[in-house]
Amino acid sequence: MTHDTTALNRKRHRFDGVAEVWLFGYGSLIWKADFPFIERRPARLRGWSRRFWQGSHDHRGTPDAPGRVLTLAREPGATCFGIAYLVTPAVFDALDHREKNGYLRHLETLEFDDGRCVDGLVYIADEHNAAWLGPAPDAAIAGQIAAAHGPSGANRDYVLHLADALRAHGAEDAHVFAIECELRRIVA
Ligand code: BEZ
Question: Which residues line ligand 1 (CB under 6 A)?
Answer without folding.
Answer: 25-29, 70, 99, 103, 123
